Amino acid sequence: MSWTKEILNTEKPIIAMCHIRALPGDPGYDHAAGMQWVLQKAREDFLALQEGGVDAVMFSNEFSLPYLTKVKTETVAAMARIIGELMPEIEIPFGVNVLWDPVASMDLAQATGAKFVREIFTGVYASDFGVWDTNCGETIRHQHRIGAKDVKSLFNIVPEAAQYLAHREIESIAKTTVFNCKPDAVCVSGMTAGEATDSNILSRVKQAIPNTLVFANTGVRINTVEEQLGIADGAVVGTTFKQDGDFNKYVELARVKEFMQEVKRIR
């Protein structure tokens, strides 16, 4: 039995993204509306996802564009406040992703009781955010130092808007990541949020690491979910749940219900 059955109560889970609007310190933060507005929008999106029947939710600071690889304290504090205020209404497992800072993600997970984190834990990349380096050994040691050893780690091995500095085949990346770092799951992404995960790449990764969970991480839609779940062990879904499938809009309950009905038929 995989850990998804134990922790997320199903095989082939759908982890829905709750994209938090720009936070204090972010260029897009609405000072006039303030944190109460950000909290209200997060609540509305989360409740629509939960009522729509998703298996789990992942809270992320998706609108903190452009992203930092070392996130500021105010970002983590604001996310902790939002999750804390939503806690009485949360009835399904949840995870967190503080983009793009694995240490901050672990801190937030431990503070809020999140079951999992998704991050870029490994690799060195040329990215839209500059040269993007990681230190997985230190991150995992930090995880254990703060008592978060039970938090499941989802390793994104195809970072959005970035490319390995040295060419490596995806199979090599997957195999060495699993051998060296022992992720709880590996995520395969498209180029940006909402961009389809390449089924060919997804299949190659799964074949390379058959004993590790592999998730489709971006761009899964109602007309592709059957194919993607035919390859992957689960999916992280965000944009497709929003009005018109538009990243910048808000979650639409009817779209969530329709998508999850299709997933239940497949499963």
Automatic annotation (TrEMBL):
Domain of life: Bacteria
InterPro entries, per database record: BtpA, RibuloseP-bd_barrel
Assigned protein family: Belongs to the BtpA family.
Annotated PANTHER family: SGC REGION PROTEIN SGCQ-RELATED, ZGC:162297
Stated name of the protein: SgcQ protein
Organism annotation: Vibrio panuliri
Source organism phylogeny: Bacteria, Pseudomonadati, Pseudomonadota, Gammaproteobacteria, Vibrionales
